[in-house]
Protein 1
Amino acid sequence: HPARELLYHYRSRHEDLIRFSNTEFYHNLMIPVTAHTNQPNRGIKHIFLEDARYVSGTAAGPGGINPMEAKRVVEEVLKIMEERPHESIGVATMNIKQKDLIESEFQLQKSRNIHALKYEAYWQDKDEGLHEFFIKNLENVQGDERDTIVISTLYGPVKRDDGSRDGMNQRFGDINKAAGWRRLNVLFTRAKNQIILVTSMLPGDIQEEGKKRGVGVLKKYIAF
């Protein structure tokens, strides 16, 4: 059989959710479904945390964390759980340590938040839990789709004693592996209604020279 091209993106309910991948990966083959572009809480919400800092891993445990991003991600999640309880949510970040940090922050906040408790119970029950709330790292976000995906990009200026903004770590973990760009494409196309991108990076912070394609893709996506 001749190869079939995918001509439209069945998941996206706002063209911005597929526009980047459409240009970067599919060479403008996909025609997104754009029936509701003027509705609120659709498309991409970009949150730049100027004061957030990446805390590098130690020899004892590689992989860093970004505490301020983790807190903001949980804030955004709790807000949706209260205001839009019938929309499904997933959270994704770039490594296991940040995933664990977001998870522990969420558990802490959830224990005293009736909306979050009701939300989790509702989605665990609905469709036998098919679209229940999740927090995952990049490697584990594959077949999932949710109405809203909240992303913590994790990396950013390293924490300095004086709090100054410089010296960004350029390692980029799984993104700087051969298949990193594919993982990012999967991540950027998981949402039906909205992506909330929580980041501490400006495009100019990212040096893509000598790096795998994924690092350049992340830089372009933040610029986009």
Protein 2
Amino acid sequence: IFGLFYLGFLPSHWLKLRNLNYPDSFDGGQLVPSSLGGIFSFGMVITLIACLMIVASDIGSYCFGRMFGKHTLSPISPGKTVEGAIGGFICAITMGSISGMIIRWPIGCLLGGLLGALVGVFALVGDLTESMMKRNANLKDSGDALPGHGGILDRIDSYLFTPAVVYYAVNLLIAFFNV
């Protein structure tokens, strides 16, 4: 049952996120003027922002962890460090703040930063959840399709929890701030 939730329900929120449509957001629902074809709808932009925040979190975690990592974050995943987690969190907040200003949310830097903080936390939760499942199964890697990367699940673990959080957070932002 957890597999259905983990690999079915949670990632299905990418579709919900992509289909968000709030015409009052920016210029009639378009990030680019309609003269350019208006190819970027609100849902597409939010989906892209979510992906960019996950990437920023993953890269920040890796870089900060490699440069400054001294304290192990969890016995579940001994390669992850507290310093790496903080670096990933900071990078996700930064990307969220920049994105909030780009899409012209009111107090965009703050709202985008809060969304980035959520993404930073849940990207780490997704990563640790996948590591916990591997430990319980006595596996080092979740597959050999991507040698040296820990398997396919290690590449997508942050992308499993995050879309649901972003989808509901953006809906709350829309409701409370009438973004």
Protein 3
Amino acid sequence: SGVVDVLEELKPGEEHNSARYALVEFLMEAGCELDRLIHVKDGRVGLEKALAGCATSDATIVTLGPEDKHDLAVTALQNCGNVHFSKVHIEPGMATAFGTVEGKPVFIMNAAAMLEVFEALIRPGLLSILGRAEIDRPCVKASIQATLKLNPGYRHYIKAITNFGDEGYSVQPIAPMAKPWTLPNSLIVVPENVSGVRRGEMVEVWMLA
């Protein structure tokens, strides 16, 4: 199986690369200027060439598809520059790496957790590079409309729909693989050392729209 551009015809086992266009939307919403888009098809060697070619940009974001291997991407980054960390304690998005090539930041993330990782790590970093004073998303407390079981060793970012009514904010979690990308208007943020959240409890919510 593989990933092809949205405008290309699908062959058996392939899927459209919709993640790149979602990422462009995220970047434009954050006020970033897009330098270039590269669809790497030659594995680690191709990624190393792409990283070297993007070294003049202020930052580089590598988004891995379902068939791309995180360890190979980290090796490519190590061969081109420096790896500062290769994984993080967040779910989803544990397989997120960060490093530098010629002193410029490089983020590596999995497309399946792109929204969560972008909001938790990449967007704040990019806004800091741009010198923005306001980095954090608006945050509210909302009554959660579902019960969640969580891994207490990780900070969780959960796609959600948040509404405001007579009793204040309420938030409904969305299935992790829900599509389209623009469906969530918020993220539920649950800190480490929390093994679960009961329906009706108040949780922290980042408003995205």
